[in-house]
Amino acid sequence: MAENVLHLDRVTMQFGGVVAVNGLSMDVNAGEIVALIGPNGAGKTTAFNVITGVYAPTNGQVDLFGSPMVRNHPRGKMKKLYAGEDPDAFRGQALCPTPDKITRLGIARTFQNIRLFCSLSVLDNVLIAKHMRARHNVFAATFRLTPRVEREMRQSAEALLEEQGLTHLKDEVAGSLPYGLQRRLEIARALATEPRLLLLDEPAAGMNPQEPHELAAFIRQIREKYNLSILVIEHHMDLVMEVAERIYVLDFGKLIAQGDPAAIQDNPDVITAYLGVDEE
Amino acid sequence: MNFMQANLPYLLAGISVGGQYALIAIGYTMVYGILRLINFAHGDVFMIAGLIMIYAAAAMPLYLAIPLVLIATVVIGFLIERVAYKPLRSAPRMSIMISAIGVSYLLQNLALYVTGGLSRMYPTIPFISDSVTIGSATTKMVTLITPVLTLILVVVLVLFIHKTKIGMAMRAVSKDFETSQLMGIKINSVISATFIIGSFLAAVGSMLYFTNYAGVTPTAGAMPGLKAFVAAVFGGIGSIPGAVIGAFIIGICENIIKGMGWTTFSDAFTFALLIVILIAKPTGLFGEKATDKV
Amino acid sequence: MKKKTANLISLGLVAGLFLVLFLLEQVMDPASMLFVVLKKGAIYALVAVSMNLLNGFTGLFSLGQAGFMLIGAYAYGILTIPPEARDAVYQYFDGGIIQFALPVPLALIIAGLAAAFFAFLIGLPVLRLKSDYLAIATLGFAEIIRAFFQWDALGPITNGSNLLRRFPTFSSVIFPFFVAGLCIAIIVLLVNSSYGRAFKAIRDDEVAAEAMGINLFKHKQMAFVISSFFAGVSGALLAMYQTTVQASAFKSAMTYEILLIVVIGGIGSISGSCIASFLFIACNEWWLRFLDNELFIGTWQVPLLRTGFRKVVFSIIIMAVVLFYRQGIMGDR
Fold this sequence. Notes:
heterotrimer, A: 280 residues, Rossmann fold, 6-stranded mixed sheet, 4-stranded antiparallel sheet, 10 strands, 36% helix, 24% strand, C: 333 residues, 4 strands
């Protein structure tokens, strides 16, 4: 059996009285491409934000490579307000690392509404992602005492741009790129952090019908090349069915189905969630 | 009892100054609630109101001068918003804050030019400048009038905000700027109304405040302005009752510190309080928490 | 190859600049306004660039610059007054408790370090605050620092609310140019390094920067401490220029002026901050002086011209830049 990369154990995220993610458990194994789907507002992006440390979950635990990465239980005001399950299952020391620590542990992400460093050049965007792994302190970097580190950063950043076909645009301002290229740059930037697990938040949003097909091929290609596991949120069913090996379906924050693409396609709960209940 | 007796004058002065800060603080808190802008120029509007009073009182009887000061200050507040803030509505927040600092700089320099750098005598307003004796302390009438007048104005303002249509629009805009714009609220008139109310209260505050001082200098507004802002943050920015309570607390603490002989630190105390509040409870006593969407 | 020639050219330009300054000092009247502008302009250029590092490059809207200059100025003054002069300076405090004097270069560095140390402490709580709260908290800290330095109980060190004076100063314009130029060059190197890129990433999008593995607090703290270091050095230079130091001069109005210089030059532009500093000082101290003097053409008095008019015109120009010319002189180049 393949090594477990990411394991969510009954993760609940509650904002005030609203339970955005409710007791979500899921797994991503080494080398897998897993999709997280569900109607708008089902809590998919919230789940991403919990995994990447943007939000500390209200309750639950997230493991990375078998060791606990995030863990929390209802505290403070949430003690009374908590509306999810298992309020006592995760008592004990809470563990809420900031997003940069999680990135350092090997999880990279893209954003649903593209968040590039818009005023900086395309190359700088990728170089920034290399900053974390570069071994030089501020003094050495300022006085250029470690030219080799800087050179290596540049080389690998340029290689990533090359791979995305962005080399000729490397000095352009990132904010001026067309939408599709911004998405590619975001992926290049995420890869630059040298992740083991890549989270893609709606990578096909805004694409025309043929493009998702190319994107599927590309996702498989980077998985091979960088030895990645990939978790993808997507609305484009063509892409999901083509690329995902397993699928989790969220609705109103709860997991309603999981399985391989064929099984999900025929699952009555999923069809109901997407198309609504037939009242006849 | 001895403590009370020794500190009564400071306590009274504190309540009085607190009321004056409260009147300024409301202007800060309302503008921040709606525009998310620290209106750095507000303290200087307060100072300008003091200067107008000096020149008006020299030229005409007080019953004309006082309304003139109120009207002129309101007009200035309105114009500042239209000229310096409105063009920057879609600009980054830093730009509009810088514009506010620019206006503050301009107003101070204008005051310097008009006064020639000399401190001008503030006119004596009969009745409120009269002396009264309370217990062991002798003080001016203004000390007693300020808290009463402040509370009356605050009650009127709160009623205005909760009972009138424009007040409702103000609350809507401070909750959600974009949505209320989409709902057909005339954003610009709401913002103007906010500045008008804020400037009016600052003008009233300035009459009460400067009565206790010999004169008005071009930088006389900066410190009370900053302290009123701290009061607004302390109470929870955007909340009117919060600003008023914060202002009274700051006014009283500051004067008691002066009473203990730590005058050097009376200003520093206010800022220390600010920093403690920002760290312990950034939303202040009555503020609401806002979360950013990722 | 190209980079090497570019480096040579800039080196040549710098050498040329210092040569020109040297020659000017030989041929011109040392009391000329030009030298006032050059000296003060260089000092303001340094503090403006240090502020730009925070506001323009890291996106931290900090208003504490005057406070850090104050620390630098005091640290320099306290450490360099010759022991024989201390009895006269600290006349109310029995000559103070410090009875040694450090050499000027060392004192300049310590001035920067003192400011940086305070910035480190202040940064621990305030850098977690968001934009406008950060502005008001740093402004508040500057006021607290000012009160502390005027405190009588610290008199044996700070001389309380009295002047510090008789410390070593400079007379040649070369000195402030050299120190400020060196410091600005270091800031330029920093801004263009990997850390500088991380600062800019934080400015552009904090959430994305954090997702790229950038520790927000650590990098903000770093920018804050480094900026304050240079503000401290510039404070020390200002003390040398003024020949005296008094805490009451470092008011928030000073920070506002520096901020306006940054804005005029262009937020995020180092060359802009430098140019704007010289323009600002030149207008303020020299070119617009005539506006302060009453002027008669024949018997007709030109209206409006009298004391203070210069500052009014000046602030109107600044407002015009803020409102209509938002990128400043140099944009973000």
